[in-house]
Amino acid sequence: MGTVTKDMGIMEIVTAHPETLEIFAKYGMGCIGCAAAHFENLEAGAKVHGINIDDMVNDMNAVIKEKSGQ
């Protein structure tokens, strides 16, 4: 998985890219401890928390790119 999209599952993202945990924390989403993280996609979780999904996805992809050295 190269980039994060808003329709991806929360745990799918965290499993493939643990570096995104800092972005979840930045936006106040403590998703890893939440039962919904196992069945909810990123867009649904962000909506519940009132988060701009496009900004969050951009931040996640930036940290993934940085970690991969691109």
Keywords:
single chain; 70 residues; mainly alpha; SP0561-like; 4 helices
Describe what you observe in this structure:
This protein is mainly α. The protein has a single domain (about 10-70), classed as Orthogonal Bundle (SP0561-like), CATH 1.10.3910. It contains 4 helices and no strands. It has helices at about 10-15, 20-25, 40-50, 55-70. It is globular and about 30 Å long. The two termini are about 15 Å apart. About 25% of the residues are buried. The mean pLDDT is about 90.
User: How many DSSP H or I helices?
Assistant: 4
Order of helices and strands: HHHH
Could you estimate the helical fraction of the residues in percent? 40-55%
Low-confidence stretches: none
CATH H-level superfamily title: SP0561-like
Measured distance between first and last alpha carbons: 15 Å
* CATH fold-level assignment: SP0561-like
Radius of gyration: 11 Å
Gross morphology: globular
* Average pLDDT over all residues: 89
Quickly give the structural class: mainly alpha
Major sheet description: none
Total count of strands: 0
Secondary-structure arrangement, i.e. CATH architecture: Orthogonal Bundle
% residues in beta strands:
under 5%
The CATH first-level class comes to Mainly Alpha
The tally of domains stands at 1
Describe the secondary-structure layout.
Elements: H1 10-16, H2 21-26, H3 42-48, H4 53-68
Summarize the structure.
The chain is mainly α. 51% of the residues lie in helices and 0% in strands. It starts with 9 loop residues before the first helix and ends with a helix.
